[in-house]
Design brief:
With 149 residues, the protein is an all-alpha fold. It is built from 5 helices and 2 strands; from the N terminus they run βααβααα. The protein starts with a strand and ends in a 10-residue tail after the last helix.
Length: 149
């Protein structure tokens, strides 16, 4: 195992820094309050700063003492299916209802892996849909229709 620069660590760290920085910039438009009476901008500011700080640490680790592991092939199927699943959920959760939208979303994300068979993905999607319904609709009492409008 060679020690040197790890491109994977550097790229992951940069992504963390960008996401954390976006949260920090987005939180500046809100009142941060005081340490004893935090405003709506305090949490995104702190969370973004922590994520950006961790990203910087990952970048430094990747530049100084990372494992030189070559990047493999990009899993385009997984990227596409997970992106489609998130967009599908966002567009259709109010139109189709929580249960069918969660089922399709979980099925698409389970099928993102090449190693998962369809029946296994369907079982995972059904279990996740039941768990999500119990957590978000029953437990947290979100006002999202279960089926359709």
């Amino acid at each position: 195992m060679q020690r040197g620069r790890s491109l994977a660590d550097v790229l992951a760290g940069v992504i963390f820094v960008l996401i954390g920085g976006a949260f920090v910039v987005g939180s500046l438009g809100y009142d941060r309050g005081t340490p004893l009476r935090m405003g709506p901008g305090a949490f995104p500011l702190l969370a973004g700063a922590i994520v950006a700080g961790l990203g910087l640490a990952i970048v430094v680790k990747g530049l100084v003492a990372g494992e030189a592991i070559p990047l493999g092939a990009v899993p385009w199927r997984a990227i596409a299916l997970i992106t489609v699943a998130v967009v599908f959920f966002g567009f259709f959760v109010r139109r189709l209802g929580f249960v069918p939208t969660s089922l399709v979303t979980a099925l698409l994300t389970a099928l993102a892996s090449k190693r998962v068979r369809f029946l296994t993905a369907l079982a995972v999607a059904a279990g996740l849909t039941v768990a999500a319904t119990l957590i978000f609709i029953v437990g947290l009492q979100l006002r999202i229709p279960l089926w359709g409008w």
